[in-house]
Amino acid sequence: MKFAERMNRLGTESAFEVFARAKELEAQGKSVVHLEIGQPDFPTPVNICNAAFQAMKDGYTGYAPAAGILEFREVIAQQIAQTRGVRVHPDEVAVTPGAKPILFFTILALVDAGDEVIYPNPGFPIYESVIRFAGAKAVPLPLLEEVDFRFRMDDLIDAISDRTQLLILNSPQNPTGGLLTAEDLEEIAYLANKHNFYVLSDEIYSRILYEGKHQSIISFPGMKERTILLDGHSKTYAMTGWRLGYSIAPQPITEQIVRLMINSNSCTCSFTQIAGMEALLGSQDAVDRMVAEFRQRRDAIVNGLNAIAGIDCLKPTGAFYVFPNVTKLSLPCDAFANYLLTEAGVAVLSGTAFGEFGKGYLRLSYANSLENIQEALKRIQIAVDKL
Length: 387
Description:
Blueprint: H1 14-27, E1 33-34, H2 46-57, H3 70-84, E2 93-96, H4 100-110, E3 116-121, H5 125-133, E4 137-142, H6 153-159, E5 164-170, H7 182-195, E6 198-202, E7 227-232, E8 245-248, H8 251-264, H9 270-281, H10 285-306, E9 321-322, H11 333-344, E10 346-347, E11 349-350, E12 362-365, H12 370-386
Parallel strand pairs: 1-10, 3-4, 3-5, 5-6, 6-7
Antiparallel strand pairs: 2-8, 7-8, 9-12, 11-12
C-alpha cells in the first residue's frame, strides 16, 4: 500500500507502544508495574464531573465556536493574567481538544519547509515529529544532567541561525522534570527579540511544581508579542481523557490556529469546556492534594533508585517523571528498559524514546501509587543484581 511521503517523517510516542506491550504481557498472566505512562492516576475532581453533567442537561451538546466558548476564553484570559502577569484578551485565546493540536497548529501556521525549529532534546517526542512532518529542519537543543537538565545558553546561541523561526520550550520538562530559571528565560527573551524568532512555550506541567514559583517566558519584556503559550487541563486536573487544551498567542496567530481548528476538528466539545471553566474557577484543593502526593512519590522513587548500584537519579523540580542515568550498567538503556519489562515486570521508557541526547537514561513516571512504586523498586533492584 502506498502512503504519502510525508508520513515517513511522522513519528510516534513510545509510551503508548510500551503500554500496549505491557498490557499484552498482563493478558498472558505476567504482573507488570506501569511506570511508562504520563497520566495522573487520580480521578477527575467531582466538582468538574458534576459541571459536565449539568452542562449536558443544559444543552451544551452541540457545536461550539471554533475558537472556544467566549465565557471560557474570558476565564482563561483572566487566569493567565493572574498567573503570568500579562494582559490577555479573549481573542488571543484558542481552545482545542487537548494541547497537542496547539503544537501542530503553531508549527503549521508559522513554519515553512526549510525553516529551522529548535527543540529540547531529550524532549516530548511529538516536537521533533511535527517539525519534520512540516518539512522544517529540527535542531536539537541538548538538556544536560550536569546543569540539572537545563540547556547551556551557549548551545542555544550556537543553534540559532538566520533560518530559525521557532524555539520550543518546556518547563517543567518531560521527560526530565527539569525547570528553566528566571535567568534562563531572561536570556532567551533577549535572544528571541534580537534574532526575531517565535517561542512556543509548553507549560502543561506549570502547576505540578515542588520548589519555587512557575515563571513563563510570556511575562518577559517583548515576549507576549512573540510567544505561543500552550497549556491545558490534562495533567493539573487529571483530565487526560477529556481532551482540553488552549493557547495564548498574538491575535493574528490565534486567528490562524482557529482556521486550522475549523479545517480539522470544527470545535472542542461544548460540555467539556464548561467543565474546564469549573476546573479553573472552583476549589483547587484536589490539585494541591495531588501535587503533595506526587512530591512524596518523587522523594521515594529518587531515594530508591539512588540506592541501586549503577543508577544515579537527580531529584526533579516539577512534572511527575524521573530520568535516571543508567550508563554504569552493563546494558544500554533501550535494552535495559526491555529487560525490565520482560524479566522484571516493570514498564519504563528508554531515554532514546525522547531523542538522541536521552541515550544512557530511562524515564519513569511516578504517576502511580506509592505501593506500586515501592514494588517496582524492589523488582528493579533484583533485576540489576542479576545482570
